């Protein structure tokens, strides 16, 4: 992972830099994927995660002279007083709280270079749109014709929709040779998706808060099933008994438990901007306390 803190005036230059990097890395031996994303929405700090099939391919990429030239350009974009871009082992950012569109493109064999050149223009354009939260590009694994996958993230659904419906994107699609590639797309929901209602702007709670709340309501359901349901199902095949238990758990969690918990913790899931810090801290303490109460009460059943 390459980490950099950008200067406020380098937004346009960084958009072009992302496009150039994506085109260059996509043509390298052993390339698996590249992911470009900010630490959070509107953050000046960005991470560029570069994945390769093995250590040798990664080392070749790190030593590639054109990459070094791009890194020199990136240094010129860093904020005044910020350290030079750093290189470190990459964490997993797939739980990032944002809305994403997955675009799969089948490229005719022999026309990969043409496709990557066109993709560079798309990357540069989408990076300039409000709410842009990074891109994940994956090279083909199997298939004929080869299929490239791109995951485009925006902070809010309406911001992603604005890019997808924009005249700039439509012009880029019209410019592409229809004999070169064929594409399809689908929307990904963050976290537990439809279990959590969106606010007026279409935004859902961050994925980590969704997960924390689901754990809060799922844990007692599983414990109660172990205490009271498991003895009843003991005579059934284990696969059948497990399926019944899981089906009951999912049904109870999806309705009504998550809805009730969401209403009770709405002040923490989407706190007002004026009191965000206080609500975040208080909400975290409340969640820890509720976990402790659940464990204390339910431990008496066994």
From TrEMBL:
<keyword id="KW-0812">Transmembrane</keyword>
<dbReference type="InterPro" id="IPR038762">
    <property type="entry name" value="ABM_predict"/>
</dbReference>
<dbReference type="InterPro" id="IPR011008">
    <property type="entry name" value="Dimeric_a/b-barrel"/>
</dbReference>
<keyword id="KW-0560">Oxidoreductase</keyword>
<feature type="transmembrane region" description="Helical">
    <location>
        <begin position="207"/>
        <end position="224"/>
    </location>
</feature>
<keyword id="KW-1133">Transmembrane helix</keyword>
<feature type="transmembrane region" description="Helical">
    <location>
        <begin position="281"/>
        <end position="301"/>
    </location>
</feature>
<dbReference type="GO" id="GO:0004497">
    <property type="term" value="F:monooxygenase activity"/>
</dbReference>
<protein>
    <submittedName>
        <fullName>Antibiotic biosynthesis monooxygenase</fullName>
    </submittedName>
</protein>
<feature type="transmembrane region" description="Helical">
    <location>
        <begin position="236"/>
        <end position="261"/>
    </location>
</feature>
<keyword id="KW-0472">Membrane</keyword>
<keyword id="KW-0503">Monooxygenase</keyword>
């Amino acid at each position: 992972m390459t980490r950099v803190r950008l200067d406020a005036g380098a937004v346009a230059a960084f958009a072009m830099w992302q496009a150039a990097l994506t085109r260059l890395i996509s043509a390298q031996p052993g390339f698996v994927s590249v992911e470009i994303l900010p630490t959070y929405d509107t953050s000046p700090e960005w991470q560029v995660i570069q994945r390769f099939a093995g250590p040798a391919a990664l080392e070749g990429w790190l030593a590639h002279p054109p990459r070094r030239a791009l890194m020199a350009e990136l240094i010129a974009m860093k904020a005044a007083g910020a350290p030079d871009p750093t290189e470190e082992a990459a964490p997993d950012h797939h739980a990032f709280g944002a809305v994403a569109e997955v675009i799969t493109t089948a490229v005719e064999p022999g026309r990969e270079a043409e496709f990557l050149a066109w993709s560079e223009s798309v990357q540069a354009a989408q990076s300039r749109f409000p709410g842009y939260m990074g891109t994940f590009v994956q090279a083909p694994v199997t298939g004929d014709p080869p299929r490239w996958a791109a995951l485009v993230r925006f902070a809010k659904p309406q911001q992603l929709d604005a890019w997808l419906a924009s005249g700039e994107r439509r012009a880029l699609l019209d410019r592409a040779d229809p004999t070169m590639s064929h594409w399809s797309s689908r929307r990904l929901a963050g976290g537990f998706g439809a279990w959590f209602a969106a606010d007026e702007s279409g935004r859902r709670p961050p994925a980590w808060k969704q997960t924390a709340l689901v754990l809060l309501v799922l844990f007692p359901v599983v414990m109660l099933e172990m205490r009271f349901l498991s003895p009843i199902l003991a005579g059934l095949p284990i696969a059948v008994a497990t399926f019944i238990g899981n089906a009951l758990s999912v049904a109870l969690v999806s309705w009504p438990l998550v809805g009730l918990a969401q209403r009770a913790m709405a002040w923490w899931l989407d706190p007002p901007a004026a009191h965000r810090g206080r609500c975040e801290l208080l909400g975290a303490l409340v969640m820890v306390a509720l976990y402790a109460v659940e464990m204390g009460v339910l431990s008496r059943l066994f």
